Amino acid sequence: MSLLKKERETLVEYGKKLIDTGLTVGTGGNISIYNRDSGYMAITPSGLEYHTITEDDIVIMDLNGHVIQGKWKPSSEYQMHSLVYQNREDVNAMVHTHAMYSTTISTLNIDLPAVDYLVAHSGGKNIRCAEYATYGTKKLAENALNAMEGRKAVLLANHGINVVGENMEEAFAITEQLEFCARLYWQAKAIGEPVILSDDEMEMMVDKFKHYGQAKKLQ
Ligand SMILES: [Zn+2]
After folding, report:
1. From ligand 1's centre to the CA of 159, what distance in Å?
2. What percent of the chain has pLDDT over 90?
3. What is the pLDDT at residue 217?
4. Start-end of H helices in the chain
5. Mean pLDDT of 165-176
6. 175 alpha carbon to ligand 1 midpoint, in Å?
7. Of 154, 34, 127, 38, nearest to 83 (Cα)?
8. Is 77 designated active site?
9. CA nearest neighbour of 91 among 177, 159, 149
């Protein structure tokens, strides 16, 4: 019997979406969903094309790095995912991608500033950039977790981004918004110096977005 059937289905669906929306290319990036009741996470396998991945290809792991079910090696960044689920009770899904514009900004090793109010969706006035570490290492997992404190997104220096959410729908939506803001910043910098929204304005936006989700549910 295959474990975490619903999570497998969602990962297959969103893996395709990652490619179709241009948020990653080839086999770059990886996505996971944590099932808090069982303590297992479902994660995409290493090195398979997203459009060929089926539910059977998804790997089920515990948070200590053991494969519970699966015929492939898990994503090489599985530690980055499990460390987040061990430390963040507010999130159950994560997207790691090499999205072009966000990754471009990450090569400057700077925080992405508030060029647009949508930056506030990740929970703060900017998107912090985590210190560089080699891919697939515990060090990278730690740097990413630390720089994402209190937030739902983080740039990984010279590598890509991590975005988390209560569920995959939210993590994916914030990924799209982050990539949009990174592109805005890049384009604005090409023709001038963008005005950055004030800390006060961004605090208000963060607060507004906190209630936005609830308002949607009430409708
Ligand atoms: Zn990566």
Report:
1. 6
2. 89
3. 47
4. 5-20, 78-87, 100-106, 138-147, 168-191, 199-218
5. 97
6. 14
7. 34
8. yes
9. 149
